[in-house]
Amino acid sequence: MNRITRIRLQGLGAAVGLLALLGAGPASAATVWGWDWTVNGDAIASGSPDHIVLTPEAVYKAGSAWLTDPVTITDNNGFNAYFEFQITNDPDGWIPGDGMAFVVRAGLADALGGNGSDLGYGGLAGTMLAVEFDTFALDSEAEGDVPHVALYLDGVDISAGASPVELRSALDFGLVRVAGDPNLFAWVDFDAGSQKLSVFLNGNDTKPSAALMVWDLVSGLETFLGSDQIRFGFTAGTGAADSEHRVDDFTLAVTTVPLPAAAPLLVSGLLGLFGVAGWRRRRGFVGACAALGLAGLASSASADMILVQQANGDVLLVSTVNATATLFADLADISGSGTTDAYSPNALGYDGTNLFRAGCCASATSLYRGDTSLKALTITGTAAAAGDVSGSEYYYIDSDFDLYRVSGITGAPGTQTVTLVKNEMTAAAGDFGDLAISGSSMFVSSGPTGSPTLQRFDLSGTLLDTYTFSGTARRYLGLAFDGSDLYGVYNTGSVNELYRLALSGTTVTPSLIGTITLGGSSAILLTDAATVPLPPAALLLLSGLIGLAALRRRSVAAVA
């Protein structure tokens, strides 16, 4: 059992333990299962095949592995975590110990707690939830059955408040395996609607229908942990008893409380307008209509979205709350033989009515409105590498870092004009990711894979800021705004991740929202992203405000 303030080292074990702590390795970075991890202490990450060994089978070891970038989780969000693990022990050796934990907390990625019964997280500051897989009991503590699974809050066992109450009965399978045995499989889910945390465990990869334990947080995660920047990770510790603690697979999906559909929100706004129009005859109806309009606004305001384009030309509407996607537009792929636009469409922009994009990777290319070619673009490099819409103009950068502006993009094909705005912008050399325009600022993600940059320019191409990454630096294939925040789409080679890019001064802090999924599966390779203007929200606000004004007029008339 873990007590968060104690490392038990006695006699000769104390000296060995102190040497082990002093000799623990520094934090190091690794990419495993498509995620960036920071591994600490005695933990080692490997990519052949992907796995993390938290501790070797040796005494007095402690290791931890945390997602390098925190995941943004508000009180409206939950999560579904899945991991495959194994705790192994030499059958000819001594008793196994001490165990490992799946930990959810707010804090830094280089955190490492004590060895032994602290399981690699004991001693860390701050509020945290830990699902412990404990294989060793101290003689002085009445822990019940060992091995066992238990839920801890800041080192205090809260399993007694979980359901089912008895959590330490013998499992149908052992926690401790012999090398070569099948792995164990665990699922940890938090539902934001019910505010309940559920833990499932099985000896195969089929998720059980009944949870091993269920616990009510009585709040959302952001309130519970005191931050919306949440760190997920694994820790383990050995003492005088030892085992190898290893994680062989991990997935994480951020969920959200379902939002009302867009159609009811629009209907509520229209009801507000209808109620205003008929306020003299249906005065009692006006207040309800106005309230519906404002309620629709409140709901729609939280339904933040960006557009992301797939390699086949389809454009997805992606939630910046949980990264789930729906098909927004089924556009034709403008690549293929016989065209001047090789490989795939790129440089996506959206003005609230029309989608704009440019062909990629050719010396001669065109700007498209939907699937209609508007204008041959001036290219001095080899591609229209990145682009976005600002009002009635389209801006794009070629691979020579020349900035162009296309005017008249809503007009008839061929009437557009192309102007060189800036020759060789002061951008980071290397490949382009994307650009996103917000007001008079243009954000550009570029640079080589080893040292990507995020920069801000004005619309004349003058460099304003170069940002320093807090966390892992990435070149994002897509940049977009949801009306207030900057977002980046990053392709790991197997999945596409959506990040919120928090800007503070000249520092950018990425936080993972989740893997972009379409129909429950990971979306295919994405090429670009664009901002979604939100005129429906303005309509709902207008209808609600007018409805309230009409209601006030009715009240004044009644008094008169």
Reconstruct the topology from this structure:
Blueprint: H1 12-22, E1 25-32, E2 35-41, E3 44-47, E4 50-55, E5 62-67, E6 71-72, E7 77-88, E8 99-105, E9 128-134, E10 148-153, E11 156-157, E12 176-177, E13 184-191, E14 196-202, E15 213-216, H2 221-225, E16 229-237, E17 244-256, H3 262-277, H4 283-301, E18 305-310, E19 315-319, E20 324-329, E21 345-350, E22 355-359, E23 365-369, E24 372-377, E25 384-390, E26 393-398, E27 403-407, E28 417-422, E29 432-438, E30 441-446, E31 453-458, E32 463-466, E33 468-469, E34 478-481, E35 486-491, E36 496-504, E37 507-515, E38 517-518, E39 521-522, E40 526-531, H5 535-559
Parallel strand pairs: 7-12, 20-38, 33-37
Antiparallel strand pairs: 1-2, 2-5, 3-4, 4-17, 5-16, 6-16, 7-13, 7-17, 8-9, 8-16, 9-10, 10-11, 13-14, 14-15, 18-19, 18-40, 19-20, 21-22, 22-23, 23-24, 25-26, 26-27, 27-28, 29-30, 30-31, 31-32, 34-35, 35-36, 36-37, 38-39
Describe this entry's structure for a reader.
Helix 3 packs antiparallel against helix 4. The protein has three domains: about 10-255, Jelly Rolls (Sandwich), CATH 2.60.120.200; about 260-300 and about 540-560; about 305-525, 6 Propeller (Neuraminidase), CATH 2.120.10. It is elongated. The model is unreliable at about 1-25, about 140-145, about 165-170, about 260-265, about 295-305, about 335-345, about 535-540 and about 555-560 (pLDDT under 50). The chain is built from five helices and 40 strands. The chain is mainly β and about 550 residues long.
